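ARCHIVE CARD
CATEGORY: sequence design from structure
SOURCE FIELD: tokenized fold
FIELD CONTENT:
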């Protein structure tokens, strides 16, 4: 849901997802003299609660002396940004935000202009889509405040443990609900998995089978480490008789993470996305799960599952996938949902994604878990779009120890792209020490063996338009994910509700990692500024581009 309000010169655009509300703020430059920031008051009409939103910085002049990691009311310590995210919002709640521009002095803040905006957050459950993002931020100030900074256990993770419920953020609970919605003799489940080894989930699936639901699984058996863990955990859960191994094309991976639900032998919905059925997939690095309640899409996924269960040779798989999901033309993609399955015979689909992004008028937003493919490097280099976001796990793809020159060259290439004003990148990171005044030291979750932060695989094109595009699924926008691996993606066109949810979560992750990355070289303290902090929001900078885009302001 989107809502824009303006009072005098203070304009606010609210973009409400499920757990995130973005507030894009604009105050004309000539009105910003002596501006000290914006207070944000939130009234939750659903629960009849109201209070000022808190931030992590305070004025030095009025520092209350709280311990490291504390939060401060924006009533007395306002935000100094023109984009603010409320990341504590709840689904299907009605909120009224009161944003006040404050001037004066830290000791005597005075209200300059005030604007109110009321929005209702989305429910993760709708008639057509369910979208769930895990927290994806074990390394955070909030996690340390709540649970301390000790590594998480890698084995026997209980989904009811408060730490893991917080990290799950509803994604595991939604998965259990999806499975538990099946009735014996009515529903069936067909699962395709890469990592299929989270013990409580496998136990829950076995219990579902025991109550009479027909479940069959095909999982990756091409990579030995994944195969061994999948085999061990499924055997422990007594699921082996219901599993089939995907083995053909042994040097590649069966990278799917989807579940088709059948009702009276007809496919009715599909759980999809980039979340592996593993400890790290659910609770560690960032992931999204997307349920399509679209029988036509579900039928395609069921046919795809049938193909996978037959363990086809690579050439046969490519032919069948292209017949099942023909590639659309970038200029005539249908409204609604379009499925794309891999592997395919060439890189045409990857070029399609690039072409779609290149058609963005105002902004596109992409995630990269394993470096930026050369096609998309050229996109960030050549696009005329004025706002080009990238969220990366790390600067480059993986290199061997003897490939230092290649690594250095790619790091420089990424840095050159970052130096372009329209390119706004963030790379996964944590606050590694408490030497910065006011910040708690963060630690990694300890659940990952490779990807620590950004595991998402989606892109958003012109999300604030009336006709946005979201592309989401299991593929990493890479050559291998297009021509070699088993993968699934869906192009969603024209759904503003889905775009709002994805945009809010993207900016939550981007803001989280952007701050932590910059902390490594800026060494920030917790203190707000009393000089012209707002100057950069009206210059030729990415800050100015963000202000204009999220507040829908032209100048």
């Amino acid at each position: 849901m989107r809502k824009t309000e303006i009072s005098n010169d203070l304009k606010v655009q609210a973009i409400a997802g499920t757990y995130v509300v973005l507030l894009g703020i604009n105050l004309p430059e000539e009105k910003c003299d002596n501006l000290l920031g914006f207070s944000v008051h939130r009234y939750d009409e659903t629960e009849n609660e109201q209070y000022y939103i808190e931030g992590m910085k305070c004025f030095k002049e009025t520092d209350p002396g709280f311990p490291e990691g504390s939060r401060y009311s924006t009533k007395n310590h306002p935000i100094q940004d023109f984009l603010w995210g409320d990341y504590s919002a709840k689904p299907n709640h009605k909120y009224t935000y009161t944003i006040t521009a404050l001037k004066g002095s830290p000791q005597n803040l005075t209200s300059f202009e005030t604007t109110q905006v009321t929005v209702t957050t989305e429910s993760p459950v709708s008639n057509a889509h369910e979208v769930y993002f895990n927290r994806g931020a074990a390394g955070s100030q909030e996690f340390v405040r709540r649970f301390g900074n000790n590594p998480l256990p890698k084995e026997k993770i209980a989904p009811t443990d408060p730490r893991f419920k917080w990290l799950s953020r509803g994604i595991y609970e939604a998965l259990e609900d999806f499975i538990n919605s099946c009735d014996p003799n009515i529903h069936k489940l067909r699962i395709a998995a890469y990592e299929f080894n989270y013990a409580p989930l496998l136990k829950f699936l076995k219990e579902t089978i025991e109550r009479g639901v027909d479940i069959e699984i095909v999982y990756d058996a091409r990579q030995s480490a994944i195969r061994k863990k999948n085999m061990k955990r499924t055997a422990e859960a007594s699921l082996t008789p219901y599993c089939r191994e995907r083995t053909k094309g042994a040097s590649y991976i069966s990278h799917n993470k989807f579940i088709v639900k059948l009702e009276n032998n007809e496919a009715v919905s599909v759980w999809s996305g980039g979340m592996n059925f593993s400890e790290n997939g659910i609770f560690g690095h960032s992931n999204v799960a997307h349920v399509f309640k679209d029988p036509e899409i579900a039928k395609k996924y069921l046919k795809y599952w049938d193909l996978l269960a037959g363990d086809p040779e690579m050439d046969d798989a490519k032919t069948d996938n292209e017949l099942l999901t023909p590639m659309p033309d970038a200029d005539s993609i249908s409204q609604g949902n379009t499925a794309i399955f891999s592997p395919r015979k060439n890189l045409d689909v990857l070029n399609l994604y690039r072409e779609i992004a290149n058609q963005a008028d105002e902004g596109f937003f992409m995630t990269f878990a394993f470096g930026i493919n050369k096609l998309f490097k050229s996109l960030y280099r050549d696009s005329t779009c004025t706002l080009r976001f990238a969220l990366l796990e790390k600067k480059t793809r993986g290199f061997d120890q003897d490939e230092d020159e290649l690594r250095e060259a790619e790091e420089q290439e990424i840095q050159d792209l970052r130096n372009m004003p329209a390119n706004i990148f963030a790379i996964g990171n944590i606050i590694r020490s408490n030497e910065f005044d006011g910040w708690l030291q963060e630690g990694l979750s300890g659940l990952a063996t490779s990807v620590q932060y950004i595991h998402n695989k989606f892109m958003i094109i012109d999300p604030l338009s009336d006709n946005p595009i979201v592309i989401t699924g299991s593929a990493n926008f890479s050559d291998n994910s297009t021509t070699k691996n088993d993968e699934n993606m869906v192009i969603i066109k024209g759904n503003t509700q889905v775009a709002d949810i994805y945009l809010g979560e993207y900016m939550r992750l981007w803001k989280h990692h952007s701050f932590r990355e910059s902390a490594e070289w800026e060494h920030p303290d917790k203190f707000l500024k009393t000089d012209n902090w707002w100057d950069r929001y009206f210059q030729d900078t990415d800050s100015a581009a963000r202000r204009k885009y999220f507040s829908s302001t032209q100048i």
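CARD ANNOTATION: Residues 129-494 form a domain with the Endonuclease; Chain A fold (CATH 3.30.870.10). Residues 496-522 form the longest helix (27 residues).
SHELF: design records, drawer C
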